[in-house]
Amino acid sequence: MGSVSQENAYDKVDEASAKIVGEAQLKKYTSFMDGYAHNLSNLEEAVGGKQHVVWEKSLCPVILKTSPEERISLPNLIRTDNQILNKVLITLSSLCMEVNTLAEEAWKDFYDPLMFYGEGVNEDEEEQVGGDSQVQIGRMLPLFQRLTCFLQRCREVLKNTVQQLAALHNKTMPKVIDATHVHFTVVYEHIGKLLRCLITIDTAVSSNAFLQAHWSQYKLMLKQVGHNPSNFDVDAGKLKPLDKLVTRFENSIIKCKLLQTCLNQNFDDSGIPVSKNSYFAEEFTYNLKVLFSQLDPRIGDQSETNHRLKYVGLCSLLVLQHRLFHSFDKKVFRQVWDISKKLPCVCLVGHVTWFPDEFLGQNMPAKSRAVDQRMLDQAAQNRSNWLNNKVQNISRECQQQHVAVSNWSARMLSGPPQNKSLGDLETKLKTFMEGIWLTCGMRHTVETMTNLHAQSNKPMTKNEVLALCRMMALSKAVTDGFHRGSMLAAESGQHIVQFLQYQILLVLQAAKKRAVAEKKYSDRRLDILSGLVLAESCAKGSPTLQRIAVAKLALSVANQSKIIRDDEYMGILMKLERLQIIGACGVWAYSKRASDQSSFYWHRSLFTTYLDGLCSDPSEAARLSYMFDVLEDITSRLLRCKHLASPQQLVQTYRDEMNGYVRQNLLDVICKEIENDLRLSVHTHLKLDDRNPFRVGVKSLRQLLAIEPLKFQGSFLDIKAYVTHYLDQTFYNLTTVALHDWKTYGEMRNLAAQKYQLEMQEVHLPNQQLEQGLDVLEIMRNIHVFVSKYLYNLNNQIFVERSSNNKHLNTINIRHIANSIRTHGTGIMNTTVNFTFQFLKKKFYIFSQFLFDEHIKSRLVKDIRDFRENRESLNQLYPYDRADKFNRGIRKLGLSADGSSYLDQFRLLISHIGNAMGYIRMVRSGGLHCCSNAIRFVPDVEDIVNFEELANADNISPEVNSAFTHIDAVIGSLAKNSAEGSDYLRMLVSVFAPEFRSSKNMHLRNFYVIIPALTINFVEHVISCKEKMNKKNKVGAAFTDDGFAIGLAYILKLVDQYSEFDSLHWFQSVRRKYEADVKSQQQPAQKQGKGAEDEKLLQTKALALKRIGIYQREFDLLYYSLSSARIFFRADLTAKEEAEEKGDKKPDEAEAQSATDGTSTDPTPAN
C-alpha cells in the first residue's frame, strides 16, 4: 500500500510538472505567433497591396486534414459476445482490407509505369542510338518482378476469399454459422475490385505498342548474347535464370494473362467444395443480382461516382462465375450486357479503355454461346451511335453543366456560415454531394469521348474540343470551390459525419428494439443482435474505410431476417457511401480525385486547338487557370515512370512541349494581334481597314492580359509581362533601325498603356531626329534636282518633297539651313547665290526660246493688239475666254510623252525659277537665324560695349587688347548681319534686269500677256493635285506650289511689266466671270419657282456651284500669293524710279558684283 501511494504521489508531481512545462511552451508559441503575424504585416506593407497573388492549390502552406486516422486491429474492432461470428467477420474483413491494399498498390506502383512506357523518347533518337529499347526494358525488369509477386498475392487472396465464401454457403460441411439468409455482397464487391485491378494491368500492357515491340527486341538480344556470351562479357551461368525469369514475365505479363492466371487456378484443392457447390452457386447469382440492382440505376445518372469501375468488377464476376461453376444465369447476363448500351466503354486509368462487349466476348467460352457475332456487331454500332449523339449534343450539355456549376458555386460560397439546425446540415450535405456528382459526371464525359475518338480514329471538331476543354475547366472550378470553402467544409464536414452517424444509429436502434422484442431464442437471432451491436459500434467511431467495411459486413448478418426494412437498409448503405466520401476521404480530397483529368495527357495535342479558340474568343480567358490545373494533374504520375534513367526527363519533356504550345499558339498570337491593333489604331488616318466594331466585331484581348500569373511545372507564366516585354523589345529594336519612327512607336507605347494597361518601359533613345535635313552644299550642287523635286510654301517658308517611296515626305525649313550655315560658315551663302545665278542663266535661256517661238510670239502679239483695240468695250478687263482659248489652243502644237502641253512645261519652268528664288530667300532667312542664335548671349544689341576701349583705359597687356579687338570685330559683324543681312533677291534682280529690259530682247516684252493663260493652267494643275490627296493612289498629289507665284513676280520685275500686267485687271476679270457663272446656275431655279426642277438637275447644279467655288478660291489664293511675292521685289517702283532712288551705287550692288565676279557670264538669253 505504501508503494502504491508513493507511486500516486510521483504521478501527481509529474502531472504538475507537465502542466508547468506545457504552460511555458504555450507562452512561447503565443509569442512566436504574435511575432510572425507582425513580420507578415510589415512584409505586406513593404510589398504593397497590388502584388500578384499566385494561388497554388497543390502547395498550401497550411491545410486542415479531416480524414480520420485510426490504429485499431480487426480483433479489437470486432468484439461481440458471439465468438464464432467474430471469427467469420474478422476473416472476411481482413480479406476485404487486403483487397483494398492490393488495389492501392496497383494504383501507385503498376498502372503508371506500364502506361508511360515509351513516353519521353524521340523515335528518331531511338533509331540512332542502338540498344536504347533494350535498356528501357532492362529498367522495367524489377517492376515486372514485383508485378509477378503482386499477381501471386492476388491469386492467393482470390482463392482464399472464394473458399471462405464456399465454406459459409455449403450444405455438405459443418456449418460455422447459419448463412442461409446472410448475403455478404460487400465481399463480392471487393472480389470484383481485385479482378478489375488485373484487368486494368492487362489492358494497359496490351494497349502499349512500345512495350510489346521493345520486349521482342529484348528477347532477340538475349538470344544473341546466349549464342556468344564471351563476346558480351557475360557469365553464361547467369543467363539461364534470367531467361527463365523473362519467359515467366512474358507468359503472364506481356501476354496479358494476369486475369486468366487468377481465374484458371484450382479452387477445389483445399477440400472445400467450390465448383460443385450448388448452394454457393445460387448465392453467387443472388449477389450478382444485388450488385446489378445497385449499379443499374446509378450508371448514367447524375448521382454517379465510381459506379463505372464497379461495373467492370461486375462483368469480371460473371466471368468468374462461369469459370467456377461452368454455368451462368442468362437473364443476369443479358441485364449486365444491356448496360453497355448506355455505357459504351469504361476508362480504367488514363487512356486505358475497357469495352464490355469485347471483354465478355473474349472471356466467356464460345461453347456457352453467351456472346455471338451479332451481339458484338450490335454493340459496336451502339457505341458509334452513342458517340455521334454525344458529339451533336456536347455543346448543349456543356452549357447545362456551366449553369449547374454556376448555381452550385453560388450555393457553396453563400451557404449558412453556422450549422444552426439539422436543415442546415442537410443543405450542406446536398451541396457537397452535388459538387462531387458534377465533377464525376464531367470527368466521365470527357474521358469517354476523348478515348472513344482515339480508339475509333475519328477526328474531333473544333467545337467539340472547346466544349470538352470547357467541361474540364468546369470540373476544376468545382474543386476550386471546395478549396475556397475548405475551412467551411472542414467544420461542416465533422458535423455532417455526426449527423449521418446519428441517422444510421436511429435505424439500428429501431431494428435492435424489434430484434429484442422477439422472445424466441435462436442462433440466428443471436447473430442478428450481434450484427446490430457491431454495426452500431462501428457507426459510433471515426468513419474509416475499415469501420465502414466491417459495418457493411455486420449489416449483412443483421439483415438476414429482414429485420431492417429494404428502404431503411438502402438508406444506410447510401449514408455509408456518403460517410466514406465526406468522412473517410474528405470532401476536398475526394473532389480532387474526382476531377483528376490526367487522361488529357494522352490527348494533349488538343490543347493547341483550345488555345486557338481562346485567342479567337477571349471571353473564356478566366478559365485558363483551370486548364493549367488540368495539365498539372499528370505531373505526380509522370514521376512514377521506370523506363527512363530519371523520371525528371519525362517531366521536362512534357514541360517543354506544353510551354511550346502556349508560346506558339497563345503568347505569340496575342503579341502579334496587340501589335497589329496598336499599329492600325495609330495609323487610322491611312484608312487601311474597316475598324467599325459594329461591322467587324471587337476582340477583347484585355481579358487575357488580366489573368493572374499562372504556375505550371514550377515556373510562372505571366501573359501581361510576356506581352509587355515583347512590345518593349519590338519597339526598341524598330526604333533603333528607323529613328524617324520614334514618334509613332511612342504613340503606340502610350496607347498600349491606355488601352491594355501595359506598363511599358522607356526606350531611352533620342526623342527626336538627329539628322539636320538636306545640307546646303548638297542642295547647291544639285539645285536643278532640288527645284524639281521640292515644292515651296510661301507663308511657312518651307520646302516639301513632291513624292517619296518612304512613309514620310522630307521637308526643308529655316532651321535646317541655319544648321548648315553654322556647320559650314556664312561664306557658303554667297557661293549658294552664285550657283543659283548659274542655274537661272540656263533656265532663262529656255524661257527666252519659248517666248521667241513664232507660234507663241504671234499669238501673244495678236492678243495684245486685240486687247488694245477693244480696251474700252472690255471695260479694261482682259477677257477670260481669250486666256482660256490660248490655254486650250496651245495643246494643238503637240504634247509630250507624259501628256503635258508646251504651256504646262512653261508653267513648270516658271515654278522652278520661283523655287530657286524661294530657296535664296530661305538661305537669307537661315543666315539671319544663325546670326541671331549666335548673338543671343549679348545683353543689349543696341548698346554693345567696346572691349578694346575698356582695355586701353585699364592699361591691359597688348595680347589681351588684341583679343578684345577680335571679339569686338566678331560681335560687330554679327550685330550687323543679324540686323540687316544681304538682300540677295534684289541682287539677282539687278544682275538680270538690264538684259531683260534691253532693246535686243523685245520679245520678252510680250510676257505679261501670257500670264492669264498661265494662271488658268496653274489653277487646273493645283486643283488636280489637291484632289489626288484624298485618293488611295497619291501619285502626283500636292497641296502647295507657291514657286509659280514667286517666279511670276520675279520675271515681271525683270521685264519691268508690273504696270502692264496690272492694266489687264486679270484677277478682277476672273472674279466677274465666276460671279456670272454662279448667277447663271442660280437663275433657272429662280425662274421656275417651286420645285419644278427634278432632283437630278438640282444635283448637277450643286456640283457645278461647288466646282465654281473651288476654281474661284484657287484663283484668290494665287492672287494673294502673287501679291505677297511682289513685295519681295519692290513692285511699287518702276525701273526708272528705282534708278532715281539709288543715285549712287549701294553696298548691296557691290556685294552682287563681287558675288558674280570671275564666275558670271553674259546672262543675255540667246535669240
From TrEMBL:
Any one Gene Ontology BP term: endosome organization
Basic and acidic residues bias (residue ranges): 1138-1149
WASH complex subunit 4 N-terminal domain ranges (all copies): 31-583
InterPro entries linked: WASH-4_N, WASH-7_C, WASH-7_central, WASH7
A Pfam family recorded for this sequence: WASH-7_C
Region of interest (Disordered), ranges: 1138-1167
Biased amino acid composition, Polar residues: 1153-1167
Any one of the GO CC terms: WASH complex
WASH complex subunit 7 central domain sequence ranges: 600-942
Domain WASH complex subunit 7 C-terminal: 962-1130
Domain of life: Eukaryota
Stated name of the protein: WASH complex subunit 7
Species per Swiss-Prot/TrEMBL record: Phallusia mammillata
Encoding gene (name): Washc4
